[in-house]
């Protein structure tokens, strides 16, 4: 469908408004909310850079360093700046993709569907995660795969040189995506599905294998780091994915499906289902385009569906697979809804897109309302205050600045009275707690955070603790116990330290009601060095 120049200009104007308004809203959220568990943890990737890390490849740390100018600019907004910028850039890229596969209207609809996705706008476009750089390189990979496998052969009939260049560029961006997150390997799985099912002549194309080799070259830092660290990352991720000790558990599967619906917007999912069932009748894309987009989506989605039969999964693990489903959905809607009456200036915004955007707005408003007011009243009652805050997911991002203020008052008093020194570190047993204490308390005070605990609980802090020199007899530490913690470390403190003192109890309030409780302990005079496997990485 060819649209008029007037309407083309109008589409781009609406697109820029969509990108601008979305970026502003996301920036405001990024500015006012404290860091979540994962965000504070990934900050340590920038603070202690390496060729790779236990949980993920190194790209997220490099992006954090880049956008904060090597952590020179501080504050939540700067740490999340990469997400704000990439979220906007991704919206433009998916518009370009939609325009390339069909027309400008498809691109515009794709941009709206992308913006309406909670995963794309909130998880990727607001909060800092490995998915942030992955999403950028994933979309660029899709673009060049489409160019290399379809466009140059079937539409433009251009030279094979350009086709091969597109394939190599696809390999380059897949490599960068792999440096962001291991799940990007499913891009090549999708290519394999497409080639074997729809275009076997590509098996004879040498540059397809060159592209794959280029991707693998980018994995060298990850492979080298794993080689020098006993393949710790592969073991860690493998244990998470391949655990089937308790057999099939349908609750995990239900959680994966439910999470996918919520993360990717239920309306978007419904549109996608309608598009897939309508394809044979409507043919809103060429068979090859539809086959490629579906092939790039299904491997990662089905893999995590199967995995979820046996172990707990997270909905964002499979979420990149929905990028190409957004394009299919947009093409389907563009085939159903045309530009308004001939000769009329204006763009039709289909009802499904209005519902999709409305659902995002409602979900975001409800999440912010819960964060600031706790209006859902899901907290446990005061008689169970030892678990206060454990049932409200928004409290993961709440109260850290207030905790830091109260801790600093105690620390200054302790230093003045000689109870503790300026060099006293903070002790933790969990990566999420440790990273929050590090970001909000330790780093601003030139303190450090060390951990005691198994590798799967301390994660990167096992390496950090080792880098900081582990532990020394006679030194003291602060231990902060949150009411959200599943277990207390005080017994561990009594085992390794001569004296354990409760120094302060802090209640974090929301609308004058306590929603979190922190206990600050003094662990004084280390008497026994913790077992190595509990305080650092051991090959």
Explain what you see.
With 539 residues, the protein is of the alpha/beta class. It has 2 domains: 5-368, no CATH class; 384-534, no CATH class. The protein has 23 helices and 5 strands. The protein has helices at residues 5-32, 37-47, 59-67, 76-79, 81-101, 104-116, 118-124, 131-154, 160-178, 186-198, 206-217, 220-228, 232-241, 250-263, 266-282, 287-307, 322-336, 351-373, 400-417, 431-442, 455-458, 460-467, 490-496; strands spanning 425-428, 449-451, 477-482, 497-510, 513-526. Strand 4 (497-510) and strand 5 form a beta hairpin. Helix 6 runs parallel beside helix 18 (351-373).
Order of helical and strand elements? HHHHHHHHHHHHHHHHHHHEHEHHEHEE
What class, by secondary structure content?
Answer: alpha/beta
Describe the biggest sheet? 5 strands, mixed
Mean pLDDT: 91
The shape, in one word, is: globular
Q: Would you kindly provide a brief summary of this structure?
A:
With 539 residues, the protein is an alpha/beta fold. The chain contains 23 helices and 5 strands.
Search tags:
539 residues; alpha/beta; 2 domains; five-stranded mixed sheet; 5 strands
Topology:
Layout: H1 5-32, H2 37-47, H3 59-67, H4 76-79, H5 81-101, H6 104-116, H7 118-124, H8 131-154, H9 160-178, H10 186-198, H11 206-217, H12 220-228, H13 232-241, H14 250-263, H15 266-282, H16 287-307, H17 322-336, H18 351-373, H19 400-417, E1 425-428, H20 431-442, E2 449-451, H21 455-458, H22 460-467, E3 477-482, H23 490-496, E4 497-510, E5 513-526
Parallel strand pairs: 1-2, 1-3
Antiparallel strand pairs: 3-5, 4-5
